[in-house]
Design a protein that fits this description.
With about 280 residues, this protein is mainly beta. The chain contains five helices and 17 strands. The longest helix is centred in the first third of the chain and has 8 residues.
């Protein structure tokens, strides 16, 4: 997160709405000190009016879950996750209660005749011709097209909610014969897959696959969690393109996804240095 309580608000603007309901239903590890389970309030800056502050509420539950709400008007004005005490500090882990793996395959809607009619012109009479001319995005064709011998395979890795980049994530393919092949990250200026109207993401190219290669699964290692590979199973025929959505919270792709607070003698909680921000005052 960024310095101070404001960094958590940046994360709040990026969290999917479903995260809150999921976190509320999932279990967290024991918090370490149930005596801290209570409501706290703190003043936070209203990003819409930087000179103003408003009172927000942090609810820390005895089962290790937390919910921070009444935040400034952002797309998702509350955040949730797990908390745990360690010595004189409390660590809030955003989204940790979700329990999901954080990645899933997405299948874009295929182009239709109606889409073609909007871009049809001389020399452009088919969807493939429209794609070749750059009038229709190739991704919505390739994701449905079976790979032929010798053709490359691409993977598009993107965050559909916040647009957070995957950074130096590694993407690999597990083939049905057991081989694992790592993809090459495509430089930004050479990427050809666009997932508009959503934000762009990382593109990976597998240019030297065996002629008879059959993809069984797609593996992703995120830079903030290199020891936790994630795999997305592939059960249909091998395609030219796989669109993979990732959850920036579950993959720790947003500033690490944690906030550390100091437990004060008066029962309040203060952001740990070098963070800055108003203390969280316990509600009687």
């Amino acid at each position: 997160m960024r310095r101070g309580a404001a960094r958590a608000l940046v994360l709040a603007s990026c969290l999917p709405a479903s995260a809150l309901a999921t976190a509320a239903a999932a279990a967290c590890a024991p918090p370490g000190d149930q005596a801290l389970a209570a409501k706290y309030t703190t003043a936070v800056t209203n990003f819409a009016a930087p000179s103003e502050k408003q009172l927000s509420t942090l609810q820390m539950r005895a089962d290790g879950r937390f919910r921070w709400y009444d935040l400034p008007p952002l797309p998702y004005p509350e955040i949730a996750g797990c908390w745990r005490r360690s010595g004189d500090t409390v660590v809030l882990v955003l989204g940790a209660a979700d329990g999901g793996d954080g990645v899933k395959r997405s299948m874009p809607v295929a182009w239709t005749q109606a889409d073609l009619n909007q871009v049809r012109r001389e020399g452009v009479q088919t969807i493939q011709q429209a794609v070749d001319a750059g009038l229709l995005a190739a991704g919505r064709v390739w994701a449905h097209q079976d790979r032929k011998a010798g053709e490359p395979v691409r993977v598009k890795l993107y965050e559909p909610t916040s647009g957070a980049p995957p950074g130096d994530a590694k993407v690999s393919l597990r083939l049905r014969d057991g081989r694992i092949v790592e993809g090459a990250a495509v430089p930004d200026e050479e990427q050809v897959i666009d997932n508009r109207p959503g934000p762009s993401g990382g593109e990976y190219l597998f240019a030297s696959l065996p002629a008879d290669a059959a993809v069984q699964a797609i593996g992703i290692r995120f830079p903030n969690q290199p020891d936790r590979p994630r795999w997305v199973s592939v059960e249909d025929r091998t395609k030219l393109l796989y669109m993979i959505e990732f959850d920036a919270r579950a993959t720790a792709s947003l500033f690490g996804g944690t906030m550390t607070l100091i437990v004060n003698a008066d029962g309040s909680l203060s952001p740990a240095l070098p963070d800055r921000g108003e203390p969280f005052v316990r509600v009687p």
